[in-house]
Amino acid sequence: MSITLKAARVNKELTQIEAAKLLGIAPDTLRQYEIGNTYPDVPMIQKIEKLYGVSYNDIDFLSNKKTV
Description:
By secondary structure, the chain is mostly helical. The chain has a single domain, classed as Orthogonal Bundle (434 Repressor (Amino-terminal Domain)), CATH 1.10.260. It is built from four helices and two strands, in the order E-H-H-H-H-E. Strands 1-2 form a two-stranded parallel sheet. The longest helix has 11 residues, at 42-52. The protein is globular and about 25 Å long. The termini are far apart.
């Protein structure tokens, strides 16, 4: 089952500000991850997995880049 990063956060009933604080990042950084403008590095992915209780393989990291 695939879940978006935002949906994983919402399922834990966390706001972007709350989740960002728990992850030790700026809320805007988390927003950028959620909309697919930037991607977290491996240590951050591990923090996200632990906080949200989901595996990296189950997270759909969105991409705003369109293929032609």
